[in-house]
Amino acid sequence: MTQKDITLQVAQHYWQLLSLQANISTLDSVQVQLDEVHRLTQQYVDAGLTTRNDLLRVELKEKEIASSRLELENGISTVKLLLAQLCGIYTLSVPSLQEGCHDLAPLPPSHYLKDKDIAVQNREEWALSQKNEEAKALAVKMEKGKLLPSLAVGVNGFYHTIDRIDHTNGMVFATLSIPISDWWGGNHAVKKAKLQQLQAVNNRMEAVEKLSIDIQSAWNNLEEAYKQIDIARASVESARENLRMHRIFYGAGTTTLTDLLDAITLYTQAQSQLVTSFATYQMRVAEYRRKS
With a threshold of 0.85, does the pTM exceed it? Predict the structure, then answer.
């Protein structure tokens, strides 16, 4: 169980790391957009078509992107250390999830689906509850065994010589012991052991129910995460088209800088959400595989 839990943690940290790296790529893409906006705004300021305040707002947005990038880089450094510690290594090289992850096609949940009853029986918790029930059943037999009569059998022999004649004699004896004095206390011990056996049976049944719920919950989370990817992908497409139109309108002077910066923000958020959704789905896959 510990080994599987650590494997799950490694998978979660791995996808968290790739998510952070992909967000870095998103910020690089946004920075390219801002560089173009900065160039156009500088031209408008030089031509007297807008005030320098607009240019300062663009520069402020660029600093905001730089700050976000610094936070992501620090997060990447920390997660790498955690991942290396879990893997027991000192250096860690992880591939980057490049921009364009919206084109990735993760395997659907049906690819990982397992029969729930079989999945329950594959869980270590179920096996432990089975062993506990078996142990309590043996305890009942042991308490009953203490009340049974015990038979002791022995053999005794001796050899002697009289008048140079050898004589060999032997004797077999048996003792039957009936623990009458222990019957009262012994009966109570048997009843107690039987109650513990019944409790073990109930615990096993409860464990089966809880494991079944746990597996079903993991499956529901997996399906939800997969659907979130499609929603996030659609949001990215809308945000990208919105940004493209506002760039054209701003270049033609028919929209404000505020609207363009808002479009850039929406695109950044949509792209980040897509990356997060993809990483979350992979984490849910790892969780379902751990629980099934």
Answer: no
Strands (E) located in 110-164: 150-162
- Region 107-122 average pLDDT: 90
Distances (CA, A) of 206 to 191, 199, 214, 217: 22, 10, 12, 16
Q: Which residue has the tokens 């979130």?
A: 228
Q: What angle do CA 125, 126, 130 make, to 5 degrees?
A: 115
Confidence of residue 99 (pLDDT cuts 50, 70, 90): very low
Homologous superfamily, domain 2-116+210-291: Outer membrane efflux proteins (OEP) (1.20.1600.10)
Paired residues of 255 in beta bridges:
none
Instruction: Name beta bridge partners: 167.
Output: 160
Q: At 22, list the tokens.
A: 């992909």
Distances (CA, A) of 21 to 31, 77, 81, 219: 15, 11, 15, 27
Q: Does residue 98 have a pLDDT over 50?
A: no
pLDDT tier at 283 (50, 70, 90 boundaries)? very high
72-89 core/surface letters (b: 16 or more CB in 10 A; e: else): beebbeebbebbeeeeee
Instruction: Yes or no: say if 287 and 221 are a contact pair by the CB < 8 Å rule.
Output: yes
Q: How many CB atoms neighbour CB 254 within 10 A? A: 9
112-119 CB contacts, 8 Å cutoff, 24+ apart:
112/222, 112/285, 112/288, 112/289, 112/292, 113/219, 114/292, 116/212, 116/215, 116/216, 116/292, 119/215, 119/291, 119/292
Q: How confident is the model at residue 231 (pLDDT cuts 50, 70, 90)?
A: very high
How open is the CA angle 252-256-262, to the nearest 5 degrees? 115
The percent of the chain in helix, strand and coil, each rounded to the nearest 5, is 75, 10, 15
